[in-house]
Write a structure and sequence with these properties.
Order of helices and strands: HEEEEHEEHHH
Structural class: alpha+beta
Strand order of the largest sheet: 1-2-3-4-6-5
Radius of gyration: 19 Å
Distance between the termini: 47 Å
Number of helices: 5
Largest sheet: 6 strands, antiparallel
């Protein structure tokens, strides 16, 4: 896509909305880069276990903001197959965002994007993105680490929610139940 003055202006407006929301919520952040053609904001959270860095990247040529968060560990080559399955299982239940796994490098990250084609996103949407990402990462990062270092097996990872009374119903069952209740 072409980088036009209008696209740069939309990106700048969205960047300013994010910064205003972070200031209003008193969240600590660092502006890593702030150019006409690219902006990068980093937010650090400490979850229940592992710290997490959220990176928000504004790409005016694509008219989108991407949030990503790399896991603070690398998966050893011998655990890559199990991790690929675990990532797929984790992604299956997510409504927004996904985990990306680079099988060859052993790198794992969470990613969430929002497009801002000819519009300005709301502070509420940025807040939603940040808190959904932080909650999702905090829910899975310790399990991914335990699988990576061999503390748990793939079967332990896959059955964790059921063992802890947190087994979510597939979306199709939830939709059918909601439809039945509304009749």
């Amino acid at each position: 896509m072409e980088l036009t003055p209008q696209r740069m202006e939309h990106s700048r407006k969205n960047f300013n909305v994010l910064i205003a929301m972070l200031e209003q919520k008193q969240l600590k952040y660092v502006i890593e880069e702030n150019r006409q053609d690219f902006a990068h904001v980093r937010i650090r959270f400490t979850g229940e276990d592992l710290p997490m860095d959220l990176h928000l990247l504004f790409r005016p040529e694509r008219q989108m903001v991407s949030l990503y968060s790399p896991m603070p560990f690398t998966v050893p080559a011998g655990r890559n197959g199990d991790m690929a399955i675990a990532v797929s299982a984790a992604n299956h239940g997510l409504a927004d965002g996904s985990f990306d796994f680079d099988y060859n490098a052993g790198a794992l990250r969470f990613r969430l994007t929002a497009a801002f084609m000819e519009t300005t996103l709301s502070a509420a949407l940025f807040e939603y993105m940040i808190y959904v990402a932080a909650d999702t990462i905090d829910r899975y990062n310790d399990r991914f680490l335990a699988l990576s270092d061999g503390s748990i097996t793939l079967m332990d990872f896959l059955h964790f929610d059921a063992q802890h009374g947190k087994q979510p119903k597939p979306e199709s069952e939830q939709t059918e139940k909601s439809q039945c209740e509304s009749i």
